[in-house]
Amino acid sequence: MSPGPVIHGRGAQSGAVPTRFGLATREADGDWLDAREDIDGPGPKLRTTVTEEHSKTIVTFNKSPDIMFDRSINAYRGCEHGCIYCFARPTHAYHDLSPGIDFETKLFAKPDAARLLRETLAKRGYKPAPIAMGTNTDPYQPIEATYRITREILEICLEVRHPVTITTKSARVTRDIDLLAEMARHRLIAVGVSVTSLDPKLSGLLEPRASAPVKRLEALGQLAAAGVPAHVSIAPVIPSITDEFMEAILSEAAGRGVRSASWIMLRLPHEVAPLFREWLGVHYPDRAAKVMHIVQSIRDGRDNDPDFFSRMKPTGVWADLFRTRFRLACKRLDINRSKLELDISQFRRPSPHGQLDLL
Asked: Residue 157 sits in a domain of what CATH number?
């Protein structure tokens, strides 16, 4: 992909046509789409659209051996935050949509999520374990302000005493602090906020519609003050772009009462790799080659390592350096001294129709 005019306010700079699922590239066939640039003008139309998706299930179970949860909920598909490095971008290709611009402009919402969750939790064979939210797309992206699907899910989980973990890049999470604080009182919640840098200009390029770094740090402080277990995630660490902020992010979070932290090295699966390379060429052409050289040095010479176990464990001198820096900073700041365990023993199975079982 060769850099073209900068698309301001979005992460991806092109469409990244999906080809992995045998979907044919569209050919001219004489309909109005062939002339759409003449009609609408050149370039992509960047208005965000939302399609309501009526799923049959809402809880996704997995057997991945190297992640810490076995079930998750994604209330939305696609994410308007537009993080250029987002590993979830390729999922839009399943819909014959671009993992690039389409991923951040053509969104899907699941308004039936709360009802479907209640039905799942009511099944006699269901066994509780923490449900992870924010594993694929952000549960507090901008359209949550309208749909409130994440809040509805949390209301049910509080009602039936089911534990939840949340990962977000949005300060909007504090709008549900009443629910989160009550869930924390019952040891049912942990909230992670991802902070990649402390530079608002850089953040505006990397993750253009996510909350500004200072807003995320303020959200962490509000959560911690409310008694909600708050976790700062430095994810991803991008060599020669964001790694300089690692210690400062930890220090800022610790100063706001956060005592749990983690970091994740940049991953570039499938279509994310060419999109990220294109982004480097547009915004950081002076160091694009250096960044990708380091990335490949920690991924066994590849843009990405897709293998279980090793995909989350980068190797080499750069990875060792980041790992050591993180460990020493956490030790100095008294972070990660203890591990939170959420409580599954309080779970009360609901009826499918909205009432708890009597016995």
From this structure: 3.80.30
